[in-house]
Amino acid sequence: MSFIDKNLLENEVVIYRAQMHWIIFLNTFIYLLLSVLACAFNLRLAQSNQLLWAISLLGLLLALISGISSYIRYKTSEFAITNKRVLIKIGFIRRHSLEVLLHKVEGIGVNQSILGRVLGFGTITVTGTGGTKETFDLIAAPLEFRKQVQANLS
Question: What PANTHER family does this protein's entry cite (predicted)?
Answer without folding.
Answer: BLL0215 PROTEIN
